[in-house]
Amino acid sequence: MKEVNLTITVKYTIHQTYNMPFDVYDDLCLLAGQQPFGFKPSEEYAEATDWLADHMKECDAHEWEYEILDIEEVFDEE
Q1: What's the pLDDT tens digit per position in 42-77?
Q2: Domain count of the chain?
């Protein structure tokens, strides 16, 4: 076995039908087509990002992409 520090980006795609509040739908329409965004608190689109965090689950994905950003071997300093 080898101990490593690993930094990786995982992108997955979900395609399902959802029922959502009108204000969440409106915010998602404004966000559609923009640069990818994270789930950091955003006052401007808080309803939408909270809804996404609650409803988008990796287990619902049907396609995954992995990008290895960094991998470094860990050495014991004994």
Answers
A1: 678 888 888 998 999 989 999 999 999 999 999 877
A2: 1
